[in-house]
Amino acid sequence: MASTQGYKASWWVQILHQVPHVNFQFNIVDSTFAPQEWDYQQALLFLSAIAGICLVISLILICVYLIRFCCCNSDEDEESKDHRVCCVTWSSVTAVIFCCAGIGIGFYGNSETNDGGYQVAYSLMNANHTLSSIDQLVSDTVTVLNIAVKNHLTHLEEVFSKRTELIVIVRNTRRQAESLTLHISNLTFWKDTHFTPFQTGEQINLFEDYRWLAYILLLLMDLIICLFILLGLAKQAKWLVIVMTMMGSLALLLSWGSLGLETAAVVGLSDFCVDPNSFILNTTEMKTDISSDILQYYLTCNQLVRNPFQQRLTVSQRALASIHSQLHGLEREAIPQFPSAKDDLQVLQNTLNRTEGNFHQLIALLNCRGLHKDSADAVKGLCYDGVEGLLFLLLFSFLSALSFTAMICTLPRAWKQFQNRDSDYDDMDDDDPFNPQESKRFVQWQSSI
Fold this sequence. Notes:
mainly alpha, 82% helix, 12 helices, elongated
């Protein structure tokens, strides 16, 4: 198994990876990350369906409670009714407090997940910049060498036509330059692929923007519902509590739905994070047709894996040294006899210096450390911040689902008590001095006097 330096699967990833994977036929499925296989997809859908079952159970409990509340009218004394009203109100307030705590956890989890997603996108775009730089350097070097061979070396052959020994040196330089062009052109390995890290990074960025915004709206909606529930209880506004009860039902559905998606996502992501390099290696090799030796070199980046470009780099280095030596000899021997060759030799020396500069940059870019760091940062962002953020979002969805279940059960009893109190006031005698309306009129009369 290829290992990424600096990355180790966390304990929560190991635990989530051990979650049983069951398909629709209730058969155990291998937990190896394989999103393209139908059995593995069924296993994740099965985990999501657990949240759906919990939603059905919560709806059944709510219906049973409300039916009992509507149909069972017990005769109780006034003290018992007041005690029940107090318990119902504080139960609603407690559920709101728990929901607000879950919303705070959700904001943190959403931020962590967003950080992980952006780190993955940034690392992929940085890797794409490295690969593009390699392709650009190879293209520039090959173009410059081809121009030098086609124009200046050909012109030198014409100038040295009467000196056989000089023509031999020029032709030998031509062969080495052509060989150098061939070896350098083979250093690029990502140019002809249709799959680019930049496109993947852009897709992740776009998905993360929509995901982050969707969760922000969900969190704000839950928070607004909780605040208006508290306001309705404090003001004893029956219509406001009824409206928030209906909104709480919608929030309940969204909470259980998001819980199902988060469960499938965090388990699937944990399966990937247990052995990320194996999946990256197989997928990249399948989509790009790049040899496994090159991919293994960049994914592991240790002394046990041989540099697949080492032989070509060594041959190119020797060819550059030989061309430089031959051009230096031509300048020393030919210029005194053929002054017209000075300009061509000067251009060739400048081309050789430029090629050497590009070649040293290629050596640095082709080294595994840069691309390996980008791949390691992407894996860490996904498997550390991403998984941790999803776990907090899962906890938020669970707390909010339980809280809204409790609120939907208790709020109808609360606004019914508001109605009973209003009707009690309406049934009082207008001449009763303990009637709140009569007391209010009495206070107004005194103030007018």
